[in-house]
Amino acid sequence: xxILFAVLAGTTIVTSRNVNAMLAKxxxxxxxxxxxxxxxxxxxxxxxxxxxxxxxxxxxxxxxxDVIMYLGGILGVVAIVISNFITPNISAFLLTLLIFISQLVxxxxxxxFLYHEFxxxxxxGGLLVLIGLVYNLYxxxxxxxxxxx
Length: 149
Prior knowledge:
The protein is 81% helix and 0% strand. It is an all-alpha fold. The chain is globular, with a radius of gyration of 19 Å.
């Protein structure tokens, strides 16, 4: 069941990224980001009411990690705007790998600064994926036809 949910989550990420890029082409990146978050907040409110969770009002951050959690929304907006600009210009495969590597590096940095942990296997895995990405790009460049000069 967990594997199915992981596959579905990955599918929705790639699909939503492409839909957002198409919307950004039609109405603009900033407008697309606005509607992305507007629909997201409305659906979140609907899910909240059906979940019957207790409402906890906003509180002032008590620690640095609280501030980081509140910045997640701002970082999400930045990620959507950047994604809307670059998605039409590179392949879905390359974009997915770049996002994966970015998430891995960010996770390693966050673990290091917040929890004082450093995972050699995560770094090794990230390097292997990065080497594979660079090699794939090299092969793609090699296969491109030479332009006439």
